[in-house]
Specification:
Layout lengths: L5 E7 L13 E2 L2 E2 H12 L4 E5 L2 H9 L4 E3 L7 H12 L7 E4 L9 H6 L2 H5 L4 E8 L2 H5 L5 E7 L2 E11 L10 E11 H9 L4 H6 L3 H6 L4 E5 L10 H12 L1
Parallel strand pairs: 1-4, 1-6, 4-5, 7-11
Antiparallel strand pairs: 2-3, 6-10, 7-10, 8-9, 8-10, 9-11
Amino acid sequence: MPPSPTAVLIPSRLAATRLPRKPLLELAGVPMIVQVWRRAVEARVGPVWVACAEPEIAAVVRSAGGEAVLTDPLLPSGTDRINAALATVDPERRFTRVVNLQGDMPTLDPRVLALVLEPLEQLDCAIGTLANPTEDPHERDDPNVVKAVVSVDPARPALGRALYFTRASAPSGPGPVLHHIGIYAFTRASLERFCALPPSPLERRERLEQLRALEAGMSIGVRLVDAVPFGVDTAADLERARRILEA
């Protein structure tokens, strides 16, 4: 058994539409995917692999000293990609938990990564994720900001169980909404179960993959955090990340 039962996997592919070849774009002199890999290693959660759709990504990760595994480029989602990669690198099933870190968060605070495991450890949930409370009216109304509707644990106010996820403003009434952050922790069994499920009706309607788990009765725990790590989706995001990393 390894020192940690947790593996970190970063799904990565070149087929981004808004920012072509995004994983290979340079930030502070190295490709973005290498910057994300470095943040994951710095978190010291467990061994890190990049789950690649293309050999080009694997090559830059390996040249930086990282580990990469090639997966079928036609897999439908990043979650399917990390599940396939985990089966390849760990057929002995040594790892009982896996963190799914998006490959476009190069400025992530590494300390945040460990927090996504708390819902598994403290609430015994099948899946863990993160959210940030906000009263920003733009974020409340922006359909690109996914909101988590969470029943918070009174004894542990930074933790709660997800009741729903939506692109609408929810819940109604005074108070913050919870800006969902797309970093996940799975138990090995829950990851495999999730990937075996067909897309669900609410998932299709909201275009939110995590609703598949809720509709199937799987529990999702949420750890509240103080800030939202931004993902690089546009040229403006790329320049912002460059300024941060080159400062």
